[in-house]
Amino acid sequence: MADLFVAGGIVTALEDAAVAVGRLDAALAGNPLRRAWTFWSELDAARRHAGADGRKVDLFRLAAHLHGLPLRLGDTTSAPERGREIAGLNYAVWLRSWMAAPDPEQQHLRDIALDSLRDCGGGQPALVATAQGMLAWLAEQGSRPAIRAAVPLYLRDRGITIHTLAAVTGGDALGAGPDDSDGYTVRFLETVGREAGEGRDLLLTMEREWRQARFRVDHRAGARSNSRLPAAVDLLAASPLLSITALAEALGCSVEGASRMLEALVQLEVAAEVTGRTGRGARRLYGLRRLLPIRAETTAVQRRTKGGQRGRPKRILTAPFAGLADDAGVADAMPDAEPAEPTRLTAVSFDFDALDRLIAAADERTRGVRRLLDRIARGEKPFPPDDETNEP
Length: 392
Hints:
There is one protein chain. The protein contains 14 helices and three strands. It is mainly α. Strands 1-3-2 form a three-stranded antiparallel beta sheet. Helix 5 (104-119) packs across helix 7 (144-157) and helix 8 runs antiparallel to helix 9.
């Protein structure tokens, strides 16, 4: 029974963290946005971990970099500053690879870290055991990325969560603070509670945006019962960034039809084109309004709608995953359009295999960055002449 004892200073933090993790896990159950939430949570976790390791990274620039978009430079950006930023972005992509697309070496170290957590967990509440296991791992100079990636797997392994919660890693607890066992445990639990709360806020933000987008399509576009616009909105909400060909493949329609649907959604201010690149073979990527700030971070030439103002579009400064502003028209028609927890929408059926391929493409780009960094570390050319893969 002594092993079950939890110090009084830890009890409150443990209760708050357990409630926050449970609410997030329950909100993800059966949620069609879970894939997209996992992607953005992994990316945001990588951003936070890079910051904890001394490399400040902007989330939207990281998303643009991961998708191979050229980044816009500031007027005063020097070559060394540019090099440091690219190194930081590549480092964040490498950190994400531990969670999303680990190579064999990363997988091996992550499994060792997971076994270490299991060895420290006897008789203790799972979250307390995780904190103590992480502290013991770090005391042995273990890999920080490995233990951070192992935490969500361990919580699922202990039956605390149903899903692998990419947002919950306890990584921010590795900063400055008490290094005694109880002090670190409290800091870890507070970090986990905050991460889970922010993860749930992100999910609710994504659901609100999805709800508002569907409302616009249904009530402003005059969508017919056989219209595919609601399905296009569903796919935009459930995927990281979407190209015209990917939408056509997922909905089983022509590329021209998919292009018309996306343009209609842009006109309705439901979707935003985050690239607008011209030229042969260039991709045009779309997302819902929350992802519009990505466009301000790229050097892509923006397509000007007929009659619009000339010149570079204004940069939109938005905090990562900030709550969406109320839409005046929607708010007038639906005073309760943004409840504390939106009513779940019934998703239009589409090809989830195509969505899985979209996520897999982002994961492959993560592996590509790792291969690039490995070649540079060995003093080799970044892009060998016989390398046919699309490296960043």
